[in-house]
Amino acid sequence: MHDHPDKDGFWPLDQDASPCVGSGYCCKKAPCPLGVQLHGPIAPCPSLVEKDGRHWCGEILRAPPEEAARLRQDLYVGAGCCSPMNSDRQRVLLQIAKLSKNGF
Predict the structure, then answer these.
(1) Interatomic CA distance for residues 38 and 21, integer angstroms
(2) β-strand 48-51 against 54-57: which pairing, if any?
(3) Distances in Å between the alpha carbon of 102 and those of 13, 54, 55, 89, 92?
(4) Is 51 helix (H, G, I), strand (E, B) or coil?
(5) Does residue 6 lie in a domain region?
(6) For residue 56, what is the enclosing H or E element?
(7) From the CB of residue 93, how many other CB atoms can be counted at a distance below 10 Å?
(8) Domain carrying residue 70
(9) Inside any domain, residue 3
């Protein structure tokens, strides 16, 4: 496991993970410990929000910078996807490719 986040505040990938594309898959399927504490074991997590074409944790977005950094670390936000069943990931990658092709 890595001991510090990258320049954008995300944790580097584990060797078996694919880069995070912000599909929200994890939060849609099972809430993290913070989500369970706040909302109970509800999926998708009610704190999941879509912003700028990506899914984000609303609790982290609303937190002060120091708390947000701690939460990103504790919850491995942006660490990448290691689920072979994440069909959302492929959809997001296709959407990104389409936007790139159209000059966005």
Answers:
(1) 25
(2) antiparallel
(3) 29, 18, 22, 20, 15
(4) strand
(5) no
(6) strand 54-57
(7) 14
(8) 25-101
(9) no
What dihedral do alpha carbons 33, 36, 42, 45 form, nearest 10°? -60
**What sign has the CA pseudo-torsion 86, 87, 91, 94?**
positive
Q: Which residues share a beta bridge with 55?
A: 50
C-alpha span between 92 and 88 (Å, rounded): 6
Domain presence at residue 1: no
Number of domains in the chain: 1
Q: How many CB atoms lie within 10 A of CB 78?
A: 20
Q: What is the distance between the alpha carbons of residues 92 and 46, in angstroms, rounded to a whole number?
A: 21
Reading the chain (104 residues) residue by residue, the pLDDT tens digits are 455 556 655 555 556 667 778 888 889 988 899 999 999 999 999 999 988 778 899 999 999 999 999 998 888 887 777 777 777 877 787 877 787 777 65
Q: Which residues pair with 18 in a beta bridge?
A: 81
Residue 7 lies in a domain: no
